[in-house]
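Board notes (copied after class):
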Amino acid sequence: MNQAIVRPTTQSTKTHTLTNILTALLLIVMVVSASISSVQAFELPDLTTLIEKNRSAVVNIKVEGINENPFSEEIEQLPEELKKFFKQMPHSKMPRRHGNKKPSGKAYGSGFILSSDGYIVTNSHVIKDAESIKVTLSDKRELVAKLIGTDKDSDIALLKIEATALPVLELGDSSSLKVGQWVYAIGAPFGLDYTATQGIVSALSRHLPDGNYVPFIQTDVAVNPGNSGGPLFDLNGKVVGVNSMIYSRSGGFMGVSFSIPANLVKNVTEQLKTKGYVSRGKLGVHIQDLSQELATSFQLKSPEGALVAKVERNSAAEKAGILSGDVIIAYGDSPIRSAADLPPLVGDTLIGREVSVKLIRNGEEKSVGVKVGELENKAGKEKSEIAKVNNGEGLGLLISALTDKQREKAKLKGDGVYISKVIPDSVADIAGFKSGDIVRSFNNKKISTPDDLKKAAETMPKNKPVAVLLIRGTQTRFLAVIKTTPKQ
């Protein structure tokens, strides 16, 4: 009968087994530790070097303007019924704090240096109604800034300070952003200089009710009052957006902030720099979103695309053959999934460029070539002229060639230039010019075209009066104009 032989375990065998177990456990710990470190390294980037490198090109902006109601802050602290009562009172009848001087209001924001010679990007709403704009640099210098141009539709403004060899930031490619990637911001929330916050991209191409031409970047980066106009960075240290607004019920940060994409900022700032206002493309269509019922009625499988409700006469769309009832599903290489997708793409297109538009008509897909027109921007052009006046250029007049109707009303047979607007507190305003005046001669030079007046104004001597002949109503009169060096 065979019996199993049980051999006692020797001490060396026990030691060897224990060693193997400890080795295995050590390997497991090392693998887990490496995995955790890898995850932490991916999820929690070290931003110290990037922030240190880029913060010097971020600036603080202080704006001084006219506060129409000097008691606005006090009124906001009153009970609701009293607040309503005081808000209904005309501001002109309210007492002033500073004698006859208009009360001054201040606003603060952020910005960043785009070029070493002093061009600075910020938000349009930061410098709204500004009488003076001051920029504080990282070395504590405070410099007066000129407004080069502003674009309300994109909420971008371009400023210029007189300085050289400044630190700059580089605009990155916002089209490469992905939801979930890390981003960070530097700004001055509540006036706290060079505050850095971080988060992730929450959504892309977010269209807001008042932002038809801006496909906003949504993030959870903490942005508060004072951050407006500051840069949003990717982990390469490039600016991928300009912080613009937050969604809030309390007035403070609630985890939802919106930034203007860098690619849009590039286009807008370049136009502001070269001509002072922004031109946008125009198709000339009125569009709407599709419901499932409308999609079915137009023989579509899903409610995607931009439904054309109206085509404007003589527009680019009409000339291309687009009809009411067409559903636009692609613009160039970009798919159109909702009506909000189309305006930013059209607005960003060069005027006169031909673009292929894919649409569905009567259940059939077809493509048409559209030569993009220009969206009229009278307000932008006027603001550009006002900015030039505030920067010391020109007389402070918005002018145009005479129409037959204007010439007939003034009983004028010869030439002249029509004044459509006089900028408040400008050289022309001080001299007594009024909207509707017709300039006939300037400093003894005949004025026939707007260019004649511009050239005459540019060459007029400073601090010396010159005579201007004009027609006001049916009367002819002279005014004396003195051009002085503008105050900084």
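Comment from the instructor: The radius of gyration is 32 Å. DSSP finds twelve helices and 26 strands in the chain.
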